[in-house]
Amino acid sequence: MFLASEYDKETSMQEKCGNAKRKHTSKLHSESSESSSNCKLDTANSFKNTKSGNCNRCNIMGCTQQCSRCRSIFYCSKPCQKEDWTVHKKSCKKEYTEEEKRIIEERLKRKKQQAIDLQKMEEKRFVTLFDSFSGGNQRFLKTLSPEKALLTASRPHGSLQKAIEFAKTWFPDFKVLTRFVNVPREPMNPFELIMMESLNMQKCLLVAFMYRYHEHVMRHGAYLKDDIDSESKVEFYLDHVGDNPAPFFSYSMVKPGNFICILKPLVHGFMDGTIGFKIEDPSNVYIIEKDILVQDNLL
Q: Which positions fall inside the MYND-type domain (predicted)?
């Protein structure tokens, strides 16, 4: 009896100790799990990428791929970005860095200053041009009449060959040119001038067809065509002789339908960016009128 009672007490004590151990272990495990959970959250927060966001199309979190233009929208993949572009492009605005903003500002300042300098240069050139010609304001402000502006002429068949024959008769020692591409340009330095003289390039004569009036009435200009219908122009700068080409020709002869012969021609670059032929010596120009060519054909 005594032994059974002692045994029951000992068994009860062991069960109590076991329960206490289990409770203690469970508590420790719970605390450990909670601590571990807190640690993960903290770690996730501490290593969170500040340059991330929800996908602008499918709303997936933690996307790091940005719109390279505005840098304010995130995407999870290229396909999402591609499909969302039709909507996003309406609000997408280029986001410039501070360095890019500085560069753009400098460029704008430079362009503004260039525009101011160009305007000053144009005003100065206008005054110089106005002072360099004779004839008064009426000539300076003169424009083409609608009839002259629309007047054009076509080169009659065989007329160019007749004009070349006339030119060779008048200037047998000169090489006749009929294409603008073969005409030398004005020498830019003394070395080029020496080269031209050594190659005898100044012993040339250009024959071209005048097919319509040029808008630059003050310079009595005309548009020219060569034998392959390439286009150029001629303008007359004869203010130093009173803007009078006589006795070599008259400005009334500079009109569509006639041929022009230019001795020692050089391609000139004008101030407006165009190229053509600038005549400063009236003795270098001869006009072949279309009536002469017609009479020659009749004979």
A: 55-92
